[in-house]
Write a structure and sequence with these properties.
By secondary structure, the chain is mostly helical. The chain is 61% helix and 2% strand. The protein has helices spanning 19-24, 26-49, 58-78, 88-99, 112-129, 137-157, 162-166, 171-177, 189-192, 199-203, 213-216, 227-231, 257-277, 288-299, 307-334, 339-346, 350-381, 404-423, 428-438, 440-453; strands at 183-187, 235-239. Strands 1-2 form a two-stranded antiparallel ribbon. The protein is globular and about 70 Å long. The model has no long low-confidence stretch (mean pLDDT 90).
Length: 459
């Protein structure tokens, strides 16, 4: 390791007593990665051996009550891509990459849309259209088994951990939403200017150059595996202002990110507001997607298919894209800018709207479902007959306090939008007017949140 004589800043996490030791100590990181790998393998194994929910509460709890809400959503909103650093796919893949033939990734696979399309079509779309399809443990286990085998095969065949940056369904999301968090990998620039050993780059299996991250205001495909910090202590993992990468200029070209924000805002945030939130209210039967779904059920009934979910998803996607396109097109016209340039620059504000807003669901569901699901999984694993009950119910008013995250998301997105407009030299009254216009999707999201709060729950 390249050891410099330096005192770490108080904002540098790598200098903190416990978490700093974890990130910079290869043995501790190895232990953590082995633990997460064990969770994945055990969940797949038990899902295939004990295929039904009645005899196996373990598989579903690990995948849908631990991995997805906490290992991914919660970490992205705080520490960025930190889960990628302990991901069992890349952990094993790193060793497969070293012994494989190291072929260049075929041109047709160098497309992030492949992984993102898999995420939408294999997970989010089925949740609404076939809501029960992923619930059986054997289906969840098979889903992750196939994904794992594909990932490890690609790690073995192609060099520079190409699967992570080009094909991984989760990687296509984390690289975009990691900008929302409040940590950023940097390096001691005073040292880097005279460095000729480039130990941080040599240690990076992804062939990245950490000493450029700060200049670019972008960590690119960094997975925060922290191998670079174990090679040179000039590497710093600093606490920053939340979403600082979103409201500062960036020299990195990331044209796909804004489209990721729009799609997930439509498929997750707006669709859930339509289908799950308003769908559990007293006005449920009068909602247009419910009426259309009921009609389709009578005309074309298909086993296991939820027509109400299909209509809610369709209307949410159409509404979101229409609002975003119209508001951005008019704003770009008023500023005499190409739509593409305006969309790419200003659209960054949608990242916190989706991600921070999702914390309202995760926070309440921890007490309503996730905690008891995980405890029951543990009881089952150790052979205990004990049963954990949910820590709260919808009747507990304090649970609904997590809904405040939706309002935080609105404020957060509004601030980022205002700052992005400032980067484009839009000022004065014009800046305020364009802010109101371009933020149409924010105001639509806020309308759905407030509207739902005024309606009683259904029965």
């Amino acid at each position: 390791m390249n050891m410099l004589e330096k005192t770490r800043s108080k904002l540098d996490i790598l200098g903190w007593p416990l978490i700093g030791l974890l990130f910079t100590n290869s043995k501790w990181m190895m232990a953590l990665r082995l633990f997460v790998l064990g969770l994945l393998v055990s969940a797949i194994y038990f899902g295939l051996v004990y295929p039904t929910e009645e005899v196996n509460p373990y598989t579903g709890a690990l995948f849908w009550s631990l991995f997805w809400p906490f290992f991914l959503i919660l970490t992205m909103a705080t520490l960025g891509t930190v889960f990628c650093g302990i991901c069992p796919h890349s952990f094993v893949g790193k060793y497969l990459n070293r012994v494989g033939p190291k072929k260049p990734l075929p041109v047709w696979l160098k497309n992030r849309w492949i992984g993102f399309a898999l995420l939408l079509l294999a997970y989010w779309v089925p949740i609404y259209i076939f809501p029960d399809v992923l619930k059986p443990p054997w289906v969840s286990a098979l889903f992750f088994l196939v994904l794992t085998l594909v990932a490890w095969t690609m790690f073995y065949l192609y060099r520079n951990m190409a699967y992570c940056s080009s094909v991984c369904p989760i990687g296509s999301v984390t690289s975009a939403f990691s900008k929302v968090g409040f940590v950023q990998l940097k390096t001691d620039q005073d040292h880097c200017q005279s460095c000729r050993s480039f130990d941080c780059t040599k240690a990076c299996e992804w062939n990245l150059r950490p000493y450029f991250f700060e200049k670019k205001n972008s960590m690119g495909d960094c997975t925060l595996c922290m191998d670079c910090s174990q090679a040179c202590n000039a590497v710093e993992l600093k606490v920053t202002k939340p979403s600082v990468q979103l409201w500062k200029p960036s020299s990195a070209k990331e044209p796909m990110n804004v489209w990721v924000y729009v799609w997930l805002l439509a498929v997750i945030s707006i669709t859930m507001r339509f289908h799950h939130s308003l769908g559990h209210s007293s006005i449920k039967e009068s909602l247009p997607w419910v009426r259309a779904g009921r009609w389709m059920e009578s005309v074309l009934p298909i086993p296991m298919l939820d027509w109400v979910g299909v209509m809610a998803l369709s209307m949410a996607v159409i509404s979101t894209f229409a609002i975003v396109w119209a508001s951005f097109a008019i704003s770009a016209k008023l500023l005499n800018m190409p739509f593409k340039d305006y969309f790419q620059s200003v659209g960054q504000f949608m990242a916190p709207l989706m991600l921070i807003g999702a914390l309202s669901h995760i926070g309440s569901f921890f007490f309503l479902h996730y905690a008891s699901d995980l405890m029951n999984a543990w009881y089952w694993l150790v052979g205990s007959m004990a049963t954990a009950k949910p820590l709260a119910t919808f009747r507990d008013g304090w649970v609904h306090l997590f809904g405040l995250f939706s309002y935080v998301a609105v404020i957060w997105a509004s601030v980022v939008l205002y700052k992005r407009l400032g980067l484009m030299k839009v000022s004065g009254v014009q800046r305020s007017l364009i802010w109101l216009l371009s933020g149409a999707i924010i105001w639509f999201y806020l309308f759905l949140v407030v509207f739902r709060a005024t309606i009683p729950h259904g029965h």
